[in-house]
Amino acid sequence: MFKKVCIIGCGLIGSSLARAIKKNNLAEKIVSSNRSESINKKVIELKIVDQSSADTKKMVEGSDLVVIATPLSSYEDVILKIKDSLKNGSILTDVGSVKENIISLIEKNIPENISWIPSHPIAGTEESGPESGFSQLFKDRWCILTPSKKAKEKEINLLKSFWEKVGSKVDIMEAKQHDYILSITSHIPHLIAYNVVNTTLNIQDEKQSDIVKYSAGGLRDFTRIAASNPIMWRDIFIQNKKNTSEMINKFIENLENLKEAIESEDGKKLEKIFLKTKKIRQNIIEAGQDVEKPNFGRK
Questions:
Q1: Cβ 143 vs Cβ 119: under 8 Å
Q2: What backbone torsions phi and psi does residue 105 show, to the nearest 5 degrees?
Q3: Both 167 and 198 in a single domain?
Q4: Residue 299 domain-assigned (yes or no)
Q5: Domain region containing 223
Q6: Domain count of the chain?
Q7: Which of 221, 233, 243, 274 has the fewest CB atoms below 10 angstroms from its CB?
Q8: What global pTM score does this model have?
Q9: Mean pLDDT in each 10-residue stretch from start to end of the chain (299 residues)?
Q10: Can you give the C-alpha Rg of the chain in angstroms?
Q11: Residues 123 and 18 in one domain
Q12: Are the beta carbons of 156 and 218 closer than 8 angstroms?
């Protein structure tokens, strides 16, 4: 499918993608670039890629497909490094969770003959690093493409086919819509998880109690989400601050309604809210986004 693919950043997503490319024979050569020499050595040892170096320019040269798989805050530095090394007619994509601000940043810094087609594979676990990746991470998971206006249909279809071959279901939408939807389905749940766990830690410090020892399933699930890469999520919340702030306001409003119902002992109102939210769980299962017994994305 491609002669050479370069993945910049071999964390969970980048290393999983490299494994999926290799497993499905989608490239003759796979290379990566990582700032850490220990990671460059590790991905070679694990036989995830054929070559890896901190010299990003060198790794990018001659690549038909370049994938940026680093935190959002590093994008500007990455693109300024590689813009003059990108191969004529190559496809440039990423795996970031926010798109609207990123599209214009990249678009204004790359040559006209490069097809910039942002991708967002909605897949992952709470783990990070190249050792955590696995080739099946994208299987039956959505990948959303948000092509720039300059992207050609031929290259969009090629990238769509690429993601399908690693196991993804692919959809195409505008960046603004993507950022709004993901603020609801992904960003606000993570923010809530971070706050729930942080609140728990504060209470434990105050009460010196064994909260962790007696944690039930609900808290354990929140801690799994809150164990996600802190740098990645810091960047997501900042880059999507408008939508995230809007969702926080809606959440606070709903939380106040719940508090009011509890304090006034309004059982009917509470039951109505809980029944409505229970239906969402069934809808998610019916849509194929989870199973009756969830595995939370683990291998």
A1: yes
A2: -60, -50
A3: no
A4: no
A5: 177-286
A6: 2
A7: 274
A8: 0.86
A9: 97 97 98 96 96 97 98 96 96 97 93 95 88 95 93 95 98 96 93 88 65 72 84 94 96 95 95 86 74 54
A10: 21
A11: yes
A12: no
